[in-house]
Every structure is written in C-alpha cells, then in structure tokens.
C-alpha cells in the first residue's frame, strides 16, 4: 500500500476527466474523487485547437476533485495524456562491438546504449515522449529484455521511440500550467495508449498478443502488444464523431439529436431490432415531432463500424500475423459503450473481443459505479502507470541491494566513504523512474 495521492488528467475531444487515486491495502488502485467537464470542439482529432476553452475545462474538472487535496503542506503529482495523429511510433536499433566479449554485460553498458540511442534519435526528433526497450541481443544468444550478465562479442539494443510534434506538445503544456495549484505540481505527459494499457490489459494478454483499440470521439488509438512489449501503435483521425455525422446526414436531424440518439438508442448491430421500433425527435421551436427508425439508426452505426474493423485488420496485418494475437482485441474508450460492439468487431476481424473496463475500485458506491466505464480507461491508467513504475523501480533497488558490495560500487560509482544522496521529492523520484522505465529525457522533453 502506498499513501501517495496521484492525479490523472485525460484531455479528450469531448470531455476533460480528472481523478484522484491511491493504492489501497490490497495494492489495487482506489479512486477517491472524479471530475469531468465538456470540451466539445476545443480538441480536434486529439489536438488542442482552443487553448482558452480547454484550459477552462481543465480547471473545471480539477475543481471537482479539489476537496480531497486539502492539507497545508501537501503536494500531489499529476500526469496527463497526449494523443493525435502527429504522434509517431518508430522502431530504432543500435548495435556495438564489446571491448571484452568474455566480460558479462553490465548495467552501465546497457544504460550507455540506452542513452546513446536517445541522443541519436533525438537529433532528428526534438520531442521524444518515450523510449521503450523491446529487446537486446548479445552475440548469438536469443533476444531478451534482460541482457545483464550475458557474454558475447556484440550487443544489439532494439527500441520503440514515441515522439510528438513539438508545437502540439507546447499547446498541451500551456493548458496544463492552468492545473497547477499550491497542492498540484507539474508532472509528466504520456502517450494515451500507454496509460490506457495500464488500466485495462493484463500481463497474460500482453504476452500472448493483443490489440488495444481506444475508441474516442475524435480519434481511435490502436496499440499492438506481443511478448509483453509494445510492437506498434498508431492514432487514426477516426472517432465517434464520424458516426454522429453519418446519423445527422442519414436521418436528416440536428447534430445534437444525432449524438443523443447514438448514446441513448444506438447499437453496433441492427439485425435483431424490429422495423417498427421508432423514437420521436422533438421539432424545432415547438414544431411537430419527427419519428426516427431505431433500426435505420443501427444500420448507419454498423456500416461505419464495419469500415473501422476493415481499417483495423489492415493496420494489424502491416505489423504482425493476425493469427498470432491469441488474446484478440480489447475495446475501450467512450465508443466501446455501444451495445454489441465487441460482437461486431469479433465478427469482422476474426479475433476474440472484449470490452476493457478500467481496473480500479472506490469505497464510494457512486464513484465505483461511475468508473466502471471504458471512457475512464485513460484517466485511470494515468494514475496506475505511476504505481506500475514505482514497483519496477523498487524491484530494481531490491536487486541492487542484494548484489555484492564491490559489484554494486562498480556499477553505481559509489564507495562506502561517499555520502548518500538525500531522498528525492515525489516529482523527482517519478521523473527518474519515467526516465529509466519509459525513457523520458532528463532535460524534460516529456514533462513541462
């Protein structure tokens, strides 16, 4: 159990969501407060287009969780997400001949490769969000995520770099500054898919092969995991707003009515809906109401989702054999709330599909019900990833503590006579863990 209260802030195309969470005594994420504000038309395809209104939405969402942030000396770390088609996910490899092939690979040697890869990639990509190691190969040995202790003439390191358009990142930075208060201090920015994966995917799914599909109102994020590693990710300018646009034009109704129909009466599959089922749409300024066929509504939704399923299969096929994805699809985000959407994607992709509700709880019954919703997956993941990284860092520290003193001194450069460093503040500790685990640059490329 950890007492750190961490804040997640999800800036989406339709809503800004905020949560305050901590780990309970069973190690599970417990949500203490939630906040939400409408953000329509201020974020387009995942990218901020109206700074003032997005800033106002952030402030509104944050104010709703402010009651759990009391304490004169309390400082809480918060993390936010970045999305949009400008984000690039690119593989990168670096190999070097070793000075002594009989010497076991050391931690310093691995970190040296890590830093060199970041420097090389950053020369052409000034805004690197994450550097993810996906494998190391020493000599003729099989690929591994833990090469320390292996011997061989050559070492190769394979990475996935996630980078963003600097100007888009700067816009987010401007908005996030508004969230800072005497209790809230600036934190890190994550690619949305990585945060979402932390809240809805389990280790077995990531190992056996799974595709995470986050269906937002402005974008759809597709992430492929295999062998417990991110293999590929992309952001499509395809979201639930396209479905609402089709409903508006197909049924000749207003945009607001189209959105309401989709949310309240929409279905991803139309076959079992009676032709006689209708909904009355109020007329403009007291005019006569208009009947709308619920079956026609579902037909429009189904056709647009079939298009997305085809795009999804094509995207997967570029990067892996779809037959190797034994864990199938996990659908999350606001769009995953459509009835039977998992059934539709299973039918048109040939992969098992499930809805990804975030793995979190709350002692408050109203909050517990509210967060059992795929639209909360990203904001909950932003908090969960903090604890995931803290556990990784603690495991690394434990491994170092169990190493022989001479070896530890050799690896860290410390001796018994050297004074220990003061304990880092929560923000410093988190940034260090992000740097080691996620690969954020120490000069702050992924923070602000």
Describe the structure.
The chain is of the alpha/beta class and 448 residues long. It has 13 helices and 18 strands. It has helices spanning 51-63, 107-122, 166-176, 192-200, 203-208, 240-251, 255-265, 294-319, 341-349, 365-371, 377-401, 405-412, 426-438, and strands spanning 6-11, 15-23, 29-38, 43-44, 47-48, 76-82, 88-97, 128-138, 154-163, 184-185, 189-191, 210-215, 220-226, 229-236, 278-281, 290-293, 329-332, 353-355. The strands form 5 sheets. Strands 1, 2, 3, 6, 10 and 11 form a 6-stranded mixed β-sheet that branches. A 5-stranded mixed β-sheet has the order 14-13-12-17-18, sandwiched between helices. A 3-stranded antiparallel β-sheet has the order 7-9-8. Strand 13 (220-226) and strand 14 (229-236) form a beta hairpin. Helix 6 (240-251) runs antiparallel to helix 8 and helix 8 (294-319) packs across helix 9 (341-349).
Q: Which of globular, elongated, flat, extended, rod-shaped describes the shape?
A: globular
Instruction: Determine the oligomeric state from the structure.
Output: single chain
Q: Span from first to last CA?
A: 29 Å
Helical element count?
A: 13
What is the strand content? 15-25%
For the sheet with most strands, the description reads: 6 strands, mixed
